[in-house]
């Protein structure tokens, strides 16, 4: 039972307790007043009853915040690491325009004559990567430009890289491209580059295996002729297998990352 207080104007129980307290609740079990402003703030935020409980809540909240912040930092660091990591050799080749890498056939054993007049065979190409292109010494533009750019590229490669790589011109004009014509022509660009000539039948077989083409174009006005031919660089791996091609242009700034990726196993 309760009655109305005439002094304060609110209801009190007959035993003197205010409404909101159960009959079982003693004065010692009620919430005491906060001792300081820090405890008051913590009590308002967390609903804790005393300073020890407030401290425990504060510690737990702080620990959780630090854990979340650390997790966020780790996620951001991991993402930044992925974004800044250099692309793999395989990725460089696979995502470069004008580049195709695949598992093609092994080259058949075909006999030619090299720029020195010595017997040469496609099996001689085994042991390192070979950049093959079809051309001829009378070519007015594509062939000299290709050889010039490859020569510039070679100067930017390390000795270790050039030991794993060679360039080969296969003549589509064996009638005029004798060893005597090829030797000074190749030396002008780079004495390390090689050339094959002298066997029209085997040259035709090789272009078929490598999906290349060539055609003689007569010039009635001069009585001379030109040769149309493929302009791609064809990739032959150290096992003598046809592994892909690179389309022009062959500027050193474009070719160096491609060659580096190739030598680092990007085609594996």
Describe the protein in words:
The protein has eight helices and twelve strands. With 268 residues, the chain is an alpha+beta fold. The protein has two domains: 81 residues, no CATH class; 172 residues, Glutaredoxin, CATH 3.40.30.10. The protein has an eight-stranded mixed beta sheet with strand order 3-12-11-6-7-8-4-5, sandwiched between helices. The chain has a two-stranded antiparallel ribbon with strand order 1-2. Strand 7, helix 6 and strand 8 form a beta-alpha-beta unit. Helix 1 packs across helix 2 and helix 4 packs across helix 8. It is elongated.
Salient structural properties:
single chain, alpha+beta, two-stranded antiparallel sheet, 8 helices, 12 strands, 38% helix
Q: Overall pLDDT, averaged?
A: 82
**Alpha-carbon Rg, integer:** 41 Å
The secondary-structure class comes to alpha+beta
H/E order of the elements? Answer: EEHHHEEEEHHEHEHEEEEH
Gross morphology: elongated
Please name the CATH topology of the largest domain.
Glutaredoxin
Produce a short descriptive summary:
Helix content is 38%, strand content 21%. The protein is an alpha+beta fold and 268 residues long.
Secondary structure: elements and pairs:
Layout: E1 2-4, E2 11-13, H1 37-46, H2 51-84, H3 89-94, E3 99-101, E4 111-114, E5 119-121, E6 129-135, H4 142-156, H5 159-163, E7 165-171, H6 179-189, E8 194-197, H7 200-209, E9 214-219, E10 224-229, E11 233-236, E12 242-246, H8 252-263
Parallel strand pairs: 6-7, 7-8
Antiparallel strand pairs: 1-2, 3-12, 4-5, 4-8, 6-11, 9-10, 11-12
Helix pairs in contact: 1-2, 4-8
């Amino acid at each position: 039972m309760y009655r109305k207080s005439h002094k304060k104007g609110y209801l009190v129980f007959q035993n003197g307790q205010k409404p909101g307290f159960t009959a079982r609740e003693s004065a010692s079990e009620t919430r005491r007043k906060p001792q300081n402003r820090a405890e008051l703030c913590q009590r308002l935020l967390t609903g804790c009853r005393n300073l020890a409980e407030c401290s425990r809540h504060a510690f737990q909240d702080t620990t959780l915040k630090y854990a979340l912040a650390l997790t966020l930092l780790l996620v951001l660091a991991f993402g930044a690491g992925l974004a800044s990591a250099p692309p793999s050799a395989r990725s460089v080749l696979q995502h470069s325009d004008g580049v195709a890498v695949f598992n093609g056939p092994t080259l058949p054993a075909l006999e030619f004559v090299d720029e020195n007049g010595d017997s040469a065979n496609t099996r001689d190409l085994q042991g390192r990567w070979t950049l093959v292109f079809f051309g001829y010494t009378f070519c007015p533009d594509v062939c000299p430009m290709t050889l010039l750019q490859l020569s510039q590229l070679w100067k930017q490669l390390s000795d270790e890289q050039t030991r794993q790589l060679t360039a080969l011109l296969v003549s589509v004009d064996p009638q005029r491209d004798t060893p005597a014509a090829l030797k000074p022509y190749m030396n002008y660009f780079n004495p390390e580059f090689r050339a094959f000539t002298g066997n029209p039948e085997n040259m035709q077989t090789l272009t078929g295996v490598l999906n290349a083409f060539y055609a003689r174009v007569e010039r009635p006005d001069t009585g001379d002729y030109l040769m149309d031919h493929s302009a791609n660089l064809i990739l032959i791996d150290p096992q003598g297998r046809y592994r892909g091609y690179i389309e022009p242009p062959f500027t050193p700034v474009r070719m160096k990352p491609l060659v580096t990726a190739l030598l680092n196993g990007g085609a594996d």
